[in-house]
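Thanks for the sequence, V.! I ran AAA+ ATPase domain-containing protein right away. Repeating your input here for the record:
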Amino acid sequence: MTVAIEMGQTTAGAAATLDLEELLATRLLVQGNSGSGKSHLLRRLLEQSAPWVQQAIIDPEGDFVTLAERFGHLVIDAEDHTERGLQVAGERARIHRVSTVLNLEGLDAENQMRRAAAFLGGLFDVARDHWYPMLVVVDEAQLFAPAVAGEVSDEARKLSLSAMTNLMCRGRKRGLAGIVATQRLAKLAKNVAAEASNFLMGRTFLDIDMARAADLLGMERRQADAFRDLERGQFIALGPALSRRPLALRIGPTETKPRNATPRLMPLPEATLEDARAVVLAAPPPEPVRAPRRTVAPDLLGQLMAAKSAAAALEPAAEAPEQPQLSAEQIAERRERMDKILAAVMAQPDAGFQAIGVLYQEFGVRCRIEGLAAAVPDLTEFRRMLTRARAGLGSADMADNDEWQDVMLRASILPEDMQGLFLMIARAAKEGWPCPSDATLARAYGSRSLRRARRLLTYIEEQGLIVCQLDGAGRRIVTLVELAWATAPGDPDADEAPVEECSDVPA
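Predicted structure:
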């Protein structure tokens, strides 16, 4: 079935249409400076396609919540939900085919990125039976897929960029059609922008953005100045869902309006205040005392924590009992039990590719079931445990072992997500096992890309921690600098093998 959406009119007065079915297969990129009409364009597209396809809008400014009254979208206020709750909400919205608006208004940049990543992850990770066609619109996409690191944490940036990359690069087979809008192409990550096959370019003034827009549309550089002359609501379109040649069009009117209208000039009041100083600089009123917001625990871990807090509140006030001192044998036993729990978590299908927050929640629940609630580590310590577990090392291997403490010190100069690879290689070198294959290293990093595994190995070598060599048969040997540990020759193209099985392979 072919559905043609009327976006507006061309400069010649003809109807400018968009092939919705083709858009679902090819994705769309919208670019234009602030005030060029991007949000109006997205609103027109969403209104025209609402009767035909499910929609999800990532809305950082709360502009699209007005779609709910006219078209029945479910508005999800992100500040009222945890990341885990939003991930589940994304899954359920996909399963039940409910169009949604994720309202991120009121959150800072980092929390916007985290919650948007969680929601997009829920849309992306749903079971194959529910891969229904869906438009996923991300306004101000440069906030969620920045080209360079900003003031947010690396973890939040990686989570958000990964979710956006999955949407644009791998979403098509899952029925997800990404539509991203940005003020500046130079601020948007290239691997996100490059996956779009349809383009709507609006008014822009910076040379770098005009040149890049002209390149994407197949225009000559001397024609790039045309983007300066576009009026508000005018765009140049190109792509299989729009036009095979660059086509200038003007976006038509919309049925709904944004909550935040464009500022208009207003006359100043004619009457002047007799005592402006007394009115403007009067003492501020006392701040109202706000009652704490009541929230619902969104998951099993939250319910356990809420129940524990409620029980503590009902008990009479008393001094906290002193924690009993554990013997060395008890500490070792506890470490061993927690290592087994972590191994069980890592043994689940696709555990190597799940977000650390999901793994931490699963680990915490299992520890409580085993009666180790008081021993659950914080997220920072869990990261270290996970790094060691992916390298096949337990807490007992690291405790009171000077050699491994030295290895951990060397690993600390690497980014946190690469330390597990270095520990895996160090373990293989210490035991004289074959060098791990690219597939094994990729899984330890949480990726399926063999090329990325090779790049990471090259990066570690550039830091002066290892030396990689190939023998006459093309097998890889890795030597740890200054420690004189070297792996046995290993085939870099071999299939993935768990680290625990390496000891069974003859050197």
